[in-house]
Amino acid sequence: MMYRLNRMMVPLLAVGTFAVAILNTTLLKAQIANPFGNPLIPDMVADASIQVVDNTFYCYATTDGYDNGLNTSGPPVLWKSKDFVHWSFSGYYFPSAVGQKYWAPSKVIAANGKYYIYPTINGFMYAAVASSPDGPFQLAIKPDSLYKPFTPSTLLKSPDSKPPYGIDAEVFIDDDKQAYLFWQKRKAARLHNDMVTVDTNIVTIPTPRTGYSEGPIFFKRKGIYYYLYTLGGGEKYQYAYITSKKSPLGPYDFPTTNDIITTTDRDRGIYGPGHGSVFNLPGTDDYYFVYLEFGRGSTNRQTYVNKLLFDRDGNIKPVILNKEGVGPLLKDKVAIPKKISKATASSIRADLKVKPEGDSSLHRTESFSPFFALDGSNGSRWMAETDDTDCWLLADLGRPQRITRSEIYFVRPTAGHAYELEYSLDAVRWLPVGGHGDVQIRSPHNDKLNLKARYLRVKLIKGIPGVWEWKIY
């Protein structure tokens, strides 16, 4: 069932006499649930590499949610946060890769007075370089031009006409400054000092569990090297690990128990915790595990983070998975958004039932109530009907209040949005107060305000008609 309001109905909403509008707001709040919890980023991102650079969290990831499975992806954008709760991006960090199939970028690696990153583009690994971790990055092996299926600038080289197969690069620099490259199917090799030449002595890391593996994670803690590798995919995604006290290339020791540290937890409603990263909070022994979750099926995934714990011998404990996250990790002064009394919209998209790929116990339905755009959770969103040509979302603060700022996190922000922002005291007379008519690729979209109003209304001009979160201050 789809509910649609028009502008003539909004004054009726203000006095509480329009039943459908009330159903859209107050009743839906009690009737529907958000099965996705509170993921880290207010967008669909997967394969996330997270690190701390100069007291700022950097998240390089695959942009999901472009509705074409593995045949496409979103563009390369860099999400940043000062506290690990409030995230933002603006524009692209790798211009020549825009429009390509851009997957699984590594963390940035500082070397040779520069920063290197290793994404998979169109199914092949490349190295890119910049003078800042913010970019703009260019291919490290020139020219800075990409085309399908692959170019001579690939990180791996093939001795014959066969493609240089390999995806999901992970790069680690040891204490002696030697760099190592890890990638799909348990492959590993040294990287030369130029950070783009892969040693020809490629090894396959032995693991007690066999089968296809991707998304390797590698780090060192208290003299122990940790190699994490995935198993399966979809709802069957898992992570297992092995360790070495000798070298990143082994020999390796196999845990005798609990070598699988993440797997589907049906009781908590977490399916397929897979391809991600591990990062450490500088100056502490606090480690965090980053992973994608099966989410809405196919390449419609989001990223979650939980604490990574070790026993006294350095063994990794199975990760206690939850979808609520770890909260702020660095202190940063942030304002508290206002509470919203009601939310209404021009239309509401019909419920979406997630289709399992291989686990029939997955029963998950996404609803798109306007309330979800104002509930403080990155896992829920309001979406309008696709044929809604007069698309708007209205926030009712309950009474006239002083408003200083609006932050809107649109759905699929990497494709850009244009919008108008209006305010009103009575939901009858509306005045323009913000927005922009040109399509801008960023999130959130910020409007500085200085007004008194009870209602704010955002009208979408261009872009996907939906909002992950709307914060009003």
TrEMBL record:
Pfam families: F5_F8_type_C, Glyco_hydro_43. The keyword Hydrolase applies. Coiled coil: none annotated. Keywords: Glycosidase, Hydrolase. It comes from the Bacteria. Residues 335-473 form the F5/8 type C domain. Belongs to the glycosyl hydrolase 43 family. PANTHER family: ARABINAN ENDO-1,5-ALPHA-L-ARABINOSIDASE (PTHR43301), ARABINAN ENDO-1,5-ALPHA-L-ARABINOSIDASE A-RELATED (PTHR43301:SF3). This is Beta-xylosidase. It comes from Mucilaginibacter terrae.
